[in-house]
Design brief:
The protein is an alpha/beta fold and 222 residues long. It has a single domain, classed as Rossmann fold (3-Layer(aba) Sandwich). It contains 9 helices and 7 strands. A 7-stranded mixed β-sheet has the order 3-2-1-4-5-7-6, sandwiched between helices.
Amino acid sequence: MSSNEAGAPARSHAEAMDAIYRTQRHIYDLTRKYYLLGRDRLIADLAPPPGGTVLELGCGTARNLIIAAKRYPDARFFGFDISEAMLEAARVSVRKAGLEGRIFLTRGDATAFSAQHLFGLQGFDRVFCSYTLSMIPGWEKAVAAAAASLAPGGRMHIVDFGMQDELPRWFAKSLHAWLARFQVSPRRELGLVAQNVAQTCGLRIDHRPLYRGYAQYAVIGG
């Protein structure tokens, strides 16, 4: 389901994201690379099969998709975002990278989407979310929708902010306050939600902290 079909809540979230990123999209990748830890590890773990399909929820500027497409030249890549402002930046980046034939972008709502509706596919060999769930109202639905979009034998990879429980309290408090300015909220229940989704779908789950709890990483797969 696209963001236009998801009703007022999705439109409201889309408007909020556009307001935040209409200007920030121009410096997003430069500034985020210092604190969105674990993204490149996730990409290295994807390892899609030859001719496979990979989907990113909340693709933003397409930074991750471009890196992954260069790393896995035999796969096709798909991404969607609820922010049209970010998609404008993503389309420019994909075109500059010469990857328009292998990276396909559209607008969509991560909490209610269909692989068939968005891209005409039955499912994806790999699905990933990189620091997006912490920005999505109803993020639990996004995890369930992503798992449901996996092709048989597929895997879903998630990296996002952890709760920083093993780091100094002042650091965690300051980070959470700063993230809240951008409507970002670390998801303490991510591990439990991912486990419940995996059990419902008959899939395995691996969830672990990274960098002393700064980030968390989950893999759901068959």
